[in-house]
TrEMBL record:
Ranges for domain Response regulatory: 5-119
SUPFAM superfamilies the UniProt entry points to: CheY-like (SSF52172), Homeodomain-like (SSF46689), P-loop containing nucleoside triphosphate hydrolases (SSF52540)
Record key words, sorted: Activator, ATP-binding, DNA-binding, Nucleotide-binding, Phosphoprotein, Transcription, Transcription regulation
Gene3D superfamilies referenced in this protein's UniProt entry, alphabetically: 1.10.8.60, 3.40.50.2300, Homeodomain-like (1.10.10.60), P-loop containing nucleotide triphosphate hydrolases (3.40.50.300)
Molecular function terms from GO: ATP binding; DNA binding
Domain of life: Bacteria
UniProt-listed InterPro entries: AAA+_ATPase, AAA_lid_NorR, CheY-like_superfamily, Homeodomain-like_sf, P-loop_NTPase, Sig_transdc_resp-reg_receiver, Sigma_54_int, Sigma_54_int_dom_ATP-bd_1
Protein name per the record: Response regulator receiver domain-containing protein
Record bears the keyword Lipid biosynthesis: no
Residues recorded as bearing 4-aspartylphosphate in the entry: D55
Pfam families per record: AAA_lid_14, Response_reg, Sigma54_activat
Any single biological process term in GO: phosphorelay signal transduction system
Length: 646
């Protein structure tokens, strides 16, 4: 049986010909090879391919990214083939919604696996015609329609913009006439947090006087029509602009992308900066053009827009009682009324009845495990088990045994047969939490299980067919993990069939009040406490806080506040301070340390205390009460330098 027709869009003839040979050997029909976008469009019109293998950098002034946008409009599925896997390229490619990404050089087996994954993902997508992530414009429109402080909306806008045009620092300014009035500066503090600056705030942080700033900022930023500044070009840019030099020195910026836009008879310049020295390419320049209307909308709302938010009103009533709160959003125990959360509910309702793989994305504390449980409960597999596996807690030496089981005598200490987690979940669902923590060796075996739907116990020689639905979750940026070689690209595309992204609590502060009363009710019953209300002042302080720990942090804070309360209501909230171990001060905000950062700091402190000793009595492994092999694995994974280890 002849398989589907494939068009190869690749400007290196040897690579294209190798691809053709591999595909035809496996039964696919190659309907043409195109070295450029115009030739590809010509062949698409005459040959009508079912699939396209698409290189990013092609002959001519158009890239594969440009063609990808047209392919999406024509509803032709495609897979990228590229030698470039830096994070910026992956993020730009992701924005065009490909069905796969194959890294050169690759083996024939890699190509066939990626095609199988892509075809599976395409088939699943046909089931969910409504499962389209809102575009950049729609996301920005939603953000700026909120009744929140303008600075907060700009931070959220920076977060969604960063997903398609990555940056560590963004400067937006007028250049005709040149003025610093309402210039906009956005810093990416970490992967999930952004900060805004006014010109005065930035001068204060950079220790630049107002006089110097006015002199430096009067001159237009040198551009000369050139959008990309890496390496020597960026060093030259720094020499030509004292303001850029001061900013890049302070924030350790190494490359830049400049784009100019005309809006309301004025010219605006957007300068995207990155810590990476070779971050920006022609792909990013093309993307800035593709999203020009969205960038204009963001500028219009941020620069010209008014702050329409209203301060949290202190009610005349001394406290807010549960009876006054209408819990409109209680979706299988998930509480909230916000638009973002209801989008999550809609996706759960859509995907739960099927067997499609689901990837749950979100920061720590946003409730990923509860979402996984809800998907299982609403599925036809609800009567069967949901097996939860915390991939971060699996000992490195026992991962394969834990997941797939082992036969008696398979290794030293295997005194009896063990049924693995996948076999336990047969007929039901398996939830692989923190999938980004799984080591590469285990990722290979997991991909095989997902592809072939069978397992083989360690030490055994027979395979067993399994029927398991896969639900995964992570708080990591998997595209970044792929770019840095810690996560397999083919596994990422296999898992990322139906992503559900959970909003952070700071993105849905309208849900704080109803969540507070949910926790008040929960802990008043659990602890037999008479605390049933919260004062308006205390609620206002909760709504003003940024919640780096999300719902989990709110829940713990309410439980603690109830224990400390005098009377029947919470009147004071002891919000975390910069000295709290999980937080670090960043200007006026708080930056939450990730679990990985906290674990790394703790291990380094113990190693210093033990003078770098890992093994034996008095060693760090003994102090931490973990096997020395596990500690060694963590030291390597967390990038702890050898000067800390003997």
């Amino acid at each position: 049986m002849i398989k589907e027709k494939i068009l190869i869009v690749e400007d290196e003839f040897i690579v294209a010909n190798d691809l053709r040979i591999m595909l035809e050997k496996s039964g696919y029909k190659v309907c043409g090879i195109a070295p450029s976008v115009p030739k590809a469009l010509e062949l698409i019109k005459t040959k009508a391919p079912n699939w396209i293998l698409l290189d990013i950098f092609l002959q001519g002034d158009k890239t594969g990214i440009d063609l990808a946008g047209q392919l999406t409009e024509m509803d032709i599925p495609f897979i990228y083939i590229s030698a470039n896997t830096n994070q910026g390229i992956l993020e730009a490619a992701k924005a065009t919604l490909p069905y796969g990404f194959l890294v050169k050089p690759f083996r024939e087996k890699d190509l066939m696996v990626m095609l199988d994954i892509a075809q599976y993902r395409h088939a699943q997508k046909q089931k969910y015609t409504n499962n389209t992530e809102p575009g950049l414009q729609q996301q920005l429109e939603h953000i700026f329609s909120k009744n929140e402080a303008l600075a907060e909306k700009i931070k959220q806008a920076g977060s969604v913009l960063n997903a398609v045009l990555p940056f560590d620092f963004l400067w937006i300014s007028r250049i005709q006439p040149k003025t610093s009035t309402r210039d906009l500066y956005i810093q990416r503090v970490n992967s999930n947090s952004f900060r805004t600056y006014t010109a005065d705030q930035l001068c204060s942080e950079l220790l630049v006087s107002s006089r110097d700033f006015k002199v430096w900022n009067t001159n237009a930023t040198p551009n000369a029509g050139k959008p990309i500044f890496n390496g020597y070009d960026f060093r030259k840019l720094r020499m030509e602009s004292n303001w850029i030099k001061a900013t890049s020195d302070h924030f350790k910026l190494e490359s830049a992308l400049i784009t100019e836009l005309k809006l309301n008879d004025e010219t605006f310049q957007l300068i995207f900066f990155s810590h990476a020295p070779e971050m920006y390419t022609r792909v990013h320049s093309d993307m800035s053009g593709r999203f020009e209307s969205s960038l204009k909308f963001m500028i219009e709302q941020s620069i010209y827009g008014k702050d329409l938010s209203t301060a949290v009103q202190i009610q005349e009533s001394p406290s807010i009682q549960p009876a006054k709160i209408a819990v409109l959003g209680d979706f299988n125990g998930i509480i909230g009324n916000s638009r973002l959360l209801h989008t999550v509910f809609e996706k759960i309702t859509l995907v739960a009845p099927d067997d499609t793989s689901v990837l749950i994305l979100g920061e720590s504390g946003t409730g990923k495990e509860k979402i996984a449980l809800t998907i299982h409960k609403l599925s036809p597999r609800a009567s069967k088990p949901l097996i939860t596996v915390n991939c971060a807690a699996l000992p490195l030496s026992l991962i394969e045994s834990e997941l797939f089981g082992h036969e008696k005598g398979a290794f030293t200490g295997a005194n009896e047969k063990r049924i693995g987690k996948f076999e336990q979940a047969d007929g039901g669902s398996i939830f692989l939490d923190e999938i980004g923590e799984l080591p590469l060796e285990a990722q290979v075996k997991l991909l095989r299980v997902l592809q072939e739907k069978e397992i083989e116990r360690l030490g055994g020689n027979l395979t067993k067919k399994i029927n398991v639905r896969i639900i995964t979750a992570t708080n990591r940026n998997l595209e970044k993990e792929v770019a840095e070689g810690r996560f397999r690209l083919d596994l990422y595309y296999r898992l990322n069939v139906f992503p559900i992204e959970l909003p952070a609590l700071r993105q849905r502060k309208e849900d704080i009040e109803v969540l507070v009363h949910h926790f008040l009710d929960k802990y008043s019953k659990k602890n037999s406490r008479a605390v049933t209300g919260i004062s308006a002042e205390a609620l206002a302080s909760l709504q003003a806080y940024d919640w780096p720990g999300n719902i989990r942090e709110l829940e713990h804070l309410i439980e603690r506040s109830m224990l400390m309360a005098n009377g029947t209501e919470i009147t004071e909230i002891d919000l975390p301070t910069p000295s709290t171990s999980a937080f670090a001060e960043v200007g006026d905000n708080f930056k939450a340390k990730t679990m990985e950062e906290m674990e790394r700091d703790h291990i380094m402190r113990v190693l210093k205390m033990c003078n770098g000793k890992v093994y034996g009595p008095g060693g760090a492994a003994e102090v931490l009460n973990i096997p020395s092999t596990t500690l060694n694995s963590k030291i390597k994974k967390l990038g702890i330098r050898y000067e800390f280890v003997k």
